[in-house]
Amino acid sequence: MGSLFRSETMCLAQLFLQSGTAYECLSALGEKGLVQFRDLNQNVSSFQRKFVGEVKRCEELERILAYLVQEINRADIPLPEGETSPPAPPLKQVLEMQEQLQKLEAELREVTKNKERLRKNLLELTEYTHVLRVSKAFVRRDMQFEPTYEEFPSLENDSLLDYSCMQRLGAKLGFVSGLINQGKAEAFGKTLWRACRGHSIVTHAELEGPLEDPETGEVIKWYVFLISFWGEQIGHKVKKICDCYHCHVYPYPNTAEERREIQEGLNTRIQDLYTVLHKTEDYLRQVLCKAAESVYSRVIQVKKMKAIYHMLNMCSFDVTNKCLIAEVWCPEADLHELRLALEEGSRQSGASIPSFMNTIPTKETPPTLIRTNKFTEGFQNIVDAYGVGSYREVNPALFTIITFPFLFAVMFGDLGHGFVMFLFALLLVLNEDHPRLSQSQEIVRMFFNGRYILLLMGLFSVYTGLIYNDCFSKSLNLFGSGWNVSAMYSSGHSPAEQRKMMLWNDSVIRHNRVLQLDPSVPGVFRGPYPLGIDPIWNLATNRLTFLNSFKMKMSVILGIIHMTFGVILGIFNHLHFRKKFNIYLVSIPELLFMLCIFGYLVFMIFYKWLVYSAETSRVAPSILIEFINMFLFPASDTGGLYPGQEHVQRLLLVITALSVPVLFLGKPLFLLWLHRGRSCFGVSRSGYTLVRKDSEEEVSLLGSQDIEEGNNQMEDGCREVTCEESYLTCCGPC
User: Is the distance from CB of 79 to CB of 292 less than 8 angstroms?
Assistant: First the structure.
């Protein structure tokens, strides 16, 4: 409770670590999480520190492990993440682990490179078989001809694509075949036509299914094309255009027999590549499965080793360079554990001279340490998101455990939805030891980390839902309504009561669409609903008006209580830090300002609820009008809520007006008065001069130890405010 109410009491310790045992000692300290290191080499560049080489080695190991994890995930091999965190590896095993990882990386890269090369060859051969199969119907060839020169024959009955016809034309015919991306086929054909001036013929057909690109690995639709051209110059143009459009060009056979031989050779090579590729993948998977068994623990070990060397870079060496000196912040309650950790590290390293520590006095502000557990961690994170409190301040997370879920429930306020949220959070709490929850995706992990917050939010929402009588936006009639409709009929009352009160009869019911219940009629209002809002309000036409008025007043009351409670917590801080003048110049004026205005508003709300009943509700004044009139001083008498209201309100306004200048000018003028060396209750600060001005929180730690020893009879209040202003040092004769 003490640690949760205020942060831990910290002290500054100096560690003397032998060079041979420093790594093991810091590893033991890191496993226990006892200290926070101070950087003693702030003026030294990160690249000029002692252990920069070891840090680079750890970064190289991290790069190798990241590559291994990437390959393991690519192979869809699950990582067996352990539940425990392994310690940092001993120095004797670091070089061995580095050699193993480098050897494993080189082997994986070689196997992966061979696999990719085989896979690329397989895809190219597969594409070649598709080109041969589809382009077979493009051109008819019966035999190989050599070009001859003769007169042009009649071409009326011959096809231009017939090779015998081209032979009679006396031209040398060439072919280019391959694959092109579906989206580039149309532009490719137009470019060929314009570049070759019609001296080429492009024939293409779409493949039945998509194929994987050997270069990019993308699965896309392809077109098989066959380009017929004549002339060597046009052939060079065609090949350049194919290169520009990233076409996959393959040689086209001259005869049917050559096509058949190529097809048989391709089938044989594809079968061999499939066999070799499967064996390569099996071997690669075996290597990755073996690496996956220890990659998780090695990642954690390398991170811890890197953190150790980062901390060693913050240490300074003594004059002999045989001992490292470190300064750490440590909770006073953990000093014994700190000594045990140093002894354990020295014992593990086998050093003859153990490392040791001693505490040193300091005037610096220690860091804030608040111990948390799995229940309070979520609430502490909410508070830290707004700002970490100063050292030894009151920790608001203790009160946030109740206020945050309750204020959420005030806004949420639904029994059904709150119960669903409560069951969801309860399911997370009961299965909090399941490893998949803590290692799930970010959104699920966020819900899991805030499971206790959701649990209390759902529980308080169930309570406020009962108060609002709201379950999935519907009212519940659990105890029976306190309103009696039948009592409004005139037949149930005497003639005298019928003349005094507006009762119902058959004519009123027939001619009025809206009927009003009068609580002043005997028997109509039989008493308040036992818990929450009466369900009959769900049928009323003024339901929203009533509920909005109720919730607005309740929000004002809760908000004022919340703000007042925060100011009161500030008083505890001022008392703890011995700054009583902050109570008189800050806290009390804040309370007076808040209570004289908003506290008085809360008083009027409760006063109206308690004094006015159903019989006198028609003459009850409006709180809003009365609150506005408090600042306007109306000339006419409005009656008010109670006798003497005008005098009370004027007194409250006077107190409020007086507290404003105190808030704005009180503390600054007081500190200025101290800064100019004024006497404090007849005691002056002669012999002292200001050397450094610091924050109030840091100065408050000094207490009264910096005041002149000759003024020990000074009152405690003067000693506190003197320490608030500045650090002082004696400048008189020694």
Answer: yes
For CA atoms 475, 478, 479, 484, the dihedral sign is: positive
Check whether 143 has a pLDDT greater than 80. Answer: no
Residue 212: strand, helix, or coil: strand
Asked if residue 102 and residue 187 are part of one domain, the reply reads yes
Q: Are residues 271 and 345 in the same domain?
A: no
| Chosen domain end from 256, 281, 303 | 303
Q: What is the pLDDT of residue 497?
A: 66
Query: What is the reported pLDDT for 269?
Result: 92
Give the C-alpha separation, 11 to 15, whole Å.
13
Question: In terms of DSSP H, where are the helices of 327-441?
Answer: 335-349, 377-386, 397-412, 415-430, 435-438
Q: Do residue 26 and residue 72 come from a single domain?
A: no
The amino acid occupying position 634 is P
**Rg of the chain taking only CA atoms, in angstroms:** 44
* Size of the chain, expressed as the number of residues it contains: 734
CATH number for the domain harbouring residue 1:
3.30.70.120
Residues 115, 215 within the same domain: yes
Rounded distance, CA 110 to CA 107, Å? 5
Please name the residue ranges forming H helices in 2-90: 2-5, 22-32, 52-74
* 594/653 same-domain check: yes
What pLDDT, in 10s, does the model give residues 443-502? 888 899 999 999 999 999 999 999 999 999 888 888 888 888 888 886 666 666 666 677
Residue 250 tokens read as 């393959």
* Span 196-220, average pLDDT: 80
Six token digits for residue 385: 């998101």
**Is 690 within the bounds of a domain?**
no
Question: What count of Cα atoms within 13 Å lies in the side-chain half-sphere of residue 187?
Answer: 11
Both tokens of 193, joined, read 């036509």
Percent helix, strand and coil across the chain, each to the nearest 5: 55, 10, 30
* Domain co-membership, 341 together with 384: no
Q: What is the pLDDT of residue 47?
A: 87
pLDDT (tens digit per residue) in 661-688: 999 999 999 999 988 876 544 444 443 4
Residues 6+ apart with CB under 8 A from 711: 683
Query: Quick one: pLDDT at residue 713?
Result: 39
Q: What is the DSSP string of 633-656?
A: --SS----SSTTHHHHHHHHHHHH
Residue 235 within any structural domain of the chain? yes
Record the pTM: 0.73
In angstroms, what CA-CA distances link 668 with 408, 643, 664, 671?
38, 41, 8, 5
282 and 180 assigned to the same domain: yes
The answer to whether residue 18 is domain-embedded is yes
So what's the pLDDT on residue 496? Answer: 65
Count of structural domains within the chain = 4
Q: Pick from 282, 303, 324: which residue ends a domain?
A: 303
Q: Are 516 and 524 in contact (CB under 8 A)?
A: no
Distance (Å, rounded) from C-alpha 603 to C-alpha 623?
A: 10
Structural domain range at position 257: 44-142+171-303
543, 525 contact by CB (below 8 A): no
What does the pLDDT average to over 136-151?
Answer: 46
Residues 551 and 412 in one domain: no
Phi, psi of 341 (to 5 degrees): -65, -40
What CA–CA distances, in Å, run from 242 to 245, 252, 706? Answer: 5, 15, 87
Residue with tokens 């998101």: 385
